[in-house]
TrEMBL record:
Alphabetical list of InterPro entries matching this protein: RepA_C
Origin superkingdom: Bacteria
Protein name, as recorded: Pirin
Length: 324
């Protein structure tokens, strides 16, 4: 992508208000991605396929059961923690992290490290905004319990070209260890002599661990984290990365109604107005995604979205693109 698209994004925001910091991060991510592939930059990450084809809610559904459908694929999440269903940016960042660590270490036991405050800052790449129940650390801990306590059923019938799969009643994690000290005194710096007294970890269930290893969807973590100002944009990015990996000819139009079933959990019933509202939000998210994934070739009209064969995002050096 040329610098023109970044400039257009900047001008659009200047017309109304100062550019949000996370939009600047998207432009910076674009420049970094253009300069160096993800593997060379140490930012090659992965997402489990089942959570790319259908996605978690963007806002709290205020329910113990959440369902999503994408064609022949159906996702069902049942809350296993009293707080409810995971939603928003934090479960998405957590899922990309555990999927990446599972692929990298080939182990179902994922270590959070000696300090979750450091984890939130360095691994999740989130700025601290204070402690307490509204602080980023507290919100990450809450969403971590929701995510790793959820029961997931993913069912996909597939086609002759693409084998189906079934993940029935899969727990993402068999065990999550968060010491009481983590949840109460975690967000203030620890003394050096206390830093090694506890170590948190999550043990992925065998079903989810195998899904991570057998069907990893490569992503550029620089792009994914830069898009965290919009969970919808995060989902559109991983979906496009996945779809473009096997789009070898012009697709039929993917209708707005179908896209709304996949991405539009916050728009209620499928009324004409709801579809129009979703389309507006989707196009806004897509605009951001195309800054960090400029190789994606897409046509948009009143019927929906058409995907055209596109060069995969520069995740790997040219000689290694066939690894995944």
């Amino acid at each position: 992508m040329s610098a023109t698209k970044s400039s257009q994004l900047t001008l659009n925001f200047r017309a109304g208000q100062p550019i949000p910091g996370w939009v600047r991060e998207i432009i910076d991510a674009h420049l970094a991605i253009e300069a160096e592939d993800a593997q060379s930059a140490g930012s090659l990450g992965f997402m489990a396929r089942a959570l790319v084809i259908a996605t978690m809610p963007y806002k709290d559904p205020k329910s113990d059961v959440f369902k999503r459908q994408n064609g022949d694929f159906r996702l069902r999440i049942v809350a296993g923690y009293e707080g409810g269903i995971p939603y928003g940016i934090y479960p998405r960042l957590l899922t990309s992290w555990v999927s990446t660590e599972a692929v990298r270490t080939r182990s179902p036991v994922i270590q959070l490290g000696d300090c979750l405050h450091t984890f939130v800052r360095d691994v999740m790449d989130l700025r601290s905004n204070g402690g307490g129940p509204r602080g980023s650390g507290s919100r990450v801990a809450e969403q971590m319990k929701r995510l790793f306590g959820s029961l997931i059923t993913a069912h996909y019938t597939g086609t002759q070209q693409q084998r189906g799969f079934v993940l029935r009643n899969v727990l993402i994690a068999d065990e999550l260890q968060l010491d009481d000290a983590e949840l109460t005194g975690l967000w203030t710096p620890q003394h050096a002599e206390e830093a090694g007294r506890w170590k948190s970890q999550v043990r992925l269930s065998n079903g989810f661990f195998r899904e991570c290893l057998d069907n990893p969807v490569p992503i550029d973590l620089r792009a994914y984290k830069a898009l965290r100002g919009s969970p919808l944009a995060m989902d559109v990015y991983t979906w496009l990365t996945y779809r473009m990996s096997y789009t070898h000819r012009r697709t039929r139009p993917i209708r707005w109604e179908a896209l709304m079933m996949q991405f539009g959990s916050d728009y209620g019933t499928e009324t004409a107005q709801a579809v129009r509202d979703f389309r507006k939000a989707f196009l806004k998210a897509l605009k951001l995604v195309l800054v960090v994934y400029s190789q994606a070739r897409i046509e948009v009209d009143d019927a929906g979205v058409v995907l055209l064969p596109s060069r995969p995002q520069s995740l790997l050096p040219p000689t290694q693109h066939d690894l995944f």
